[in-house]
Amino acid sequence: MLKLLVVEDHALVREGLLSTLKALNEETRIFGVADANEAIAVLEKEDIDLMILDLMLPGTKGQTFLPVVRRRFPSVPVVVLSAQDDAGTVSRVMKAGAAGFIPKSGSSTELLEALRVVLSGEIYMPPNLRELTNRSEIGRSDGKTLAQRFGLTGAQERVLELLTEARSNRQIGELLGLTEGTVKIHVSGILKAMGVTNRSEAALLASRKRRQ
């Protein structure tokens, strides 16, 4: 049986997706949740074959949650569904490990085709978005991620992303599957690498660098 997980906070949109996805396979079980915490609960309990993630979630945003899923559940491909389909957003999502990107302006036929491509083990991105993303990469000044700019490890980068959402050490630990002690160690390393004295300064600097 094919198991799919839809992470979308708007009930009407989520229900529409659940209805559309039934056409994908006769034997399909679909789970619909509204936020990252509910998604993790399903992922820990069920053998999910594919996850569809909305970027604009309440609390932990989709762009922050995607790396968390890639780390904790690496075998689960994630297809991002979003109304934000500018080149920069698409590029960041694909670099974060998404197996596909589908604009919300697309049709249900495009959605189903994209999911079939991803389920077959391939990467899906609409041709027009692929071209825009390539142009965006060419035009970037340095092409470096925050981790590359400050010499952060992958774990530190994931912690920093959650720091920018004003998450506590406990909340970060729960999302990343880490102890609070380990989170504190990562936070200390981040502050030292970024040359700041507290987590608020780190979050502000990270946000500022992303806009450059």
Task: Supply the number of helical segments.
Answer: 11
- Taking pLDDT < 50 over at least 5 consecutive residues as the criterion, the unreliable ranges are 135-141
Number of strands: 5
Helix content: 55-70%
CATH T-level fold name of the largest domain: Rossmann fold
Count of spatially separate domains: 2
Strand content: 5-15%
Given the C-alpha coordinates, what overall shape results? Answer: globular
Mean pLDDT: 85
Largest sheet, in brief, is:
5 strands, parallel
| Strand neighbour order, sheet with most strands | 2-1-3-4-5
Q: In CATH, what is the class of the largest domain?
A: Alpha Beta
Distance between the termini: 46 Å
What does this structure look like?
- This protein is α/β, with parallel strands linked by helices.
- It has 2 domains: 138 residues, Response regulator (Rossmann fold), CATH 3.40.50.2300; 66 residues, Winged helix-like DNA-binding domain superfamily/Winged helix DNA-binding domain (Arc Repressor Mutant, subunit A, Orthogonal Bundle), CATH 1.10.10.
- It is 55% helix and 12% strand.
- It has 11 helices and 5 strands; from the N terminus they run βαβαβαβαβααααααα.
- Strands 2-1-3-4-5 form a 5-stranded parallel beta sheet, sandwiched between helices.
- α3 links the parallel β3 and β4.
- α4 packs across α6 and α9 packs across α10.
- The protein starts with a strand and ends with a helix.
- About 3% of the residues have low confidence.
Task: Give a brief rundown of this model.
With 212 residues, the protein is an alpha/beta fold.
